[in-house]
Structure formats: C-alpha cells, structure tokens
Design brief:
The chain is about 80% helix and about 0% strand. The protein is mainly α and about 425 residues long. Mean pLDDT is about 85; it is low at about 1-5 and about 205-210.
Amino acid sequence: MSAGGRVAPNPDWLSPRTAVWVFLAFALAYFLSALVRAVTATLAPTLSAELTLSASDLGLLAGGYFLGFATTQLPLGNWLDRYGPRRVIVGFLTLAVLGCAAFALATSFSGLLAARVLTGMGVSACLMAPLTGFRRWLSPATLLRVNSWMLMTGSLGMVAATLPVQWLLPLTGWRGLFWLLALLLILSMAVLWQLVPGWPSESASGAAAPAIGYGQIVRHPFFRQMAPIGFINYGGMVAVQTLWAGPWMVRVAGYSAEQSAFGLFAINLCMLTAFWLWGLVNPHLVHRGLMPERLIAWGLPVSLLVLLAIVLLGPLAGWGMWALFCVSSTFVSLSQPAVAQALPPQAAGRALSAYNLVIFAGVFCVQWAIGLAVDGFGLLGWDTEASFRGSVGLFGLCCLWAYGTFLQRYRQPSHRAQD
C-alpha cells in the first residue's frame, strides 16, 4: 500500500454499525483499565498517610501495575494472533478482577504491590486486543482514527480517576472503590463476549503467509526507529499523567489534595480533547500523505520545550503546564498504529504487543526512576522543590536523547523499510 493511496475494500472489514458496537464494547473495558491505572495518583495522599509510603514507594507501587502489564506482552501478542481479541481479553480480565479484589483486601505495602502487579497483568489486553482486531477489521485510515479515540476513552477513564474518585472516597473508602471496580470489570467481560466477533482459525488465517516472530519484529528498522521515543517519551508521558503530576502539584506547587485532584481532572480532560481531535484529523492527514513519523518529528520538540519551562518555573508550574506537556506529547501516540501498519496483518498482535512492552517498560522505569531521583537528591541535602526540579530535568534530558535518536533514523533515506 502506498502512502496516502486508496485501499480496496477488504472482506474482513466490519460494517459501520457492527464496528461502532465493537468499538463501544472495547471502549468500556479500556475505560476501566485506564481508571484502575490512574487511580493511584488520586489515592497517593491517602495511601501515603495510611501506610507511610515514601516517594520511591509510591513510584514502585504505581510502577508495579506497569511491571505486571509488561510481563504479559510477548505471550499476549502470540495469543491475540492465534485466538483472537475476544477470547484473550475476557480471559485476561479475570486476572484484573482478582487483582482489584486483592488490592481491596491488602493490609501492607507488599500486598498492595502484588495486587497492582496482578491487576496490570489482567488489563494488559485492553488496548492490544482492540487494536489487533481493528488492524484486520478496519481500513488503515479508520485504524488511526479509532486508535486515537481508544486513547480518548482511556483519558476519560483517567478523568474519572480524579475528581469523581475524590468525591466517592468518603462514601466507599479506597477499599470499597476497588470492590466496585471489580464488579464493573465483570460487567465489561460479559459485554465483550456478547458483542466482539470471533476470530478465524490459525490454519485459515495464516496458511498463506509465513509466521513472523518477535526477533524479526524487533529487528525491523521501523520498530527500532520508534522504540526510543516509545520507551522514554511515550512512557514518560504516561508516568507523569498517572502519577508524578499529582505529587508535583502538592509538594512543589503547594496544591491541597483537593486542588491536586482538580488539576489531574483538568489534565486528563485536556488529553481527552487532544485524542478526540487526533481521531477527527488523522484520516485527513493520511489522505494528504502526512505519515505519523513526519508528524512526530515536527511536533514532539514542543514537549521538550515545555519540560524545560516546568523546570525553570518550579512552584509556578501548576496543572496547566503539565497539561501542556502531556498534550504536546500526544504526537508520539501516532507511533503505535504506525508500527502495526509497518508489519503484515497476521503479525499485528505481536507487533503491537512488542511495542507496547517497550512503552510500558518505559512507564515502569520512568515512574520508579523519578521517585528514586527525588529521594536521592533529598539525601544529598536538596529541599523538596529542588529535588523534584532536578528529577524532571533529568527526565527531560532523557527525552531529548530519545528524540535525537529517532530523528537520526528518520532522516535516513530508508527509514521506513518495506514489509
């Protein structure tokens, strides 16, 4: 397929009506997975007070979710390509239900951490399953649109994890909140099983093409081009959105817990709007021949400038600056469907899962590393404000390196290799 060219209809593509219902079924599950992912930022003051958690403990607790998420990605890709999205996502969500229940019952930091790892494993199919199916069921331009709108649904889940959770806490407590999440996940499993189409057998779908292993995927030039920004820039955006924007607002900008919850609400509302807009314009950009890597090369530097401004402003950098950073980082979200389209459809699950492993390994590393850096600078005698500014500065330098690596590969004449 040539860039920007028209594609002949495919018999595997869903009708518009069916595609909408399938999207909504997957969107419910991804909404809940994003809510579960982001809720630790809102609960951070409560958990810190109740269990006396340090900054590195918070980073490890939030990162534990992504550690569990990352451990499943490689087998997940194989299972998605073989068994299809419906069977795989319903099976995985069973683990998420158990993880939420374990979190509600936990009485120690180690119990909370184990529950978060289990929950991360359980929801790890909530984005990869729909994207694998959509790679086969939808046209390339529509794939870019629904990718952005799935991420918009995730942002809606993160919005729900802020002020609504803050309002609900006095009624349910954080333990009751996780019991409620477990029940909602069970509901989403039933909806998925009812609405998502089945998957052709491996013999019917893969006989005409040789199997593509993870080694070939990782060695693919386009995958290598996108890997550094996926690990650091994309992973760092999620790390900030789901954890470190909250502690910065409280400990550097002087927000109260309620003001911090509002700030997180506003950040995620901005992200929701950004992904909705990406979904609207992506098909038009594809038809004009504007490839995702070109948009990333132009747009991602804005996020680096915003990070520099945050470090320089210190206490004056509130939720608005963090919202600007996250929104300007959404250019890198275009890398995910681009990786899937750079490889054949029968390898979509493995390609997406391999790249998702890169992203969420980055989230885990960045979340924990920022916490370690904050504590480490504190041991050197730096005050809280200086420790946070120094940690964000180090993160910014890593983002700059990753973007430079991407740009170097992008400028090579054969930066997008043939399949």
